[in-house]
Specification:
This protein has helices at residues 11-19, 21-30, 36-50, 55-60, 63-68, 77-95, 101-104, 109-117. With 121 residues, it is mainly alpha-helical. The longest helix has 19 residues, at 77-95. The two termini are 25 Å apart.
Length: 121
Amino acid sequence: MPERLYLTDSDEANALIATEPLALLVGFVLDQQVTVQKAFMGPLVLRERLGAFDAETLASADLEPVFRTRPAIHRFPGSMARRVHELAVHLRDRYDGAAERVWTDAADSSELRANLEALPG
């Protein structure tokens, strides 16, 4: 596994999305109608604002005010907060909060595809 994915100007954000599968998935959810850099900074900003970054925290938090705090995490804070929340609930309930299980639990490419298509957002 790489130590960093160079998708933002932030070394810390790049390390987070490379080492935390949930952060990578959240970045992909946010990668809609904003730059790649903005989308993949989102997980780091969420961690800073919430004090933690895991499926249970994201699933139990009211994310809309967190997304709306300036500077907003996304240009569509309400809908993106809802999508990230739905993703976190799905991961918590189906994979015990372990985002990497989306791919490690897949027996083959067909199952991986089904797991990915089942993700909200």
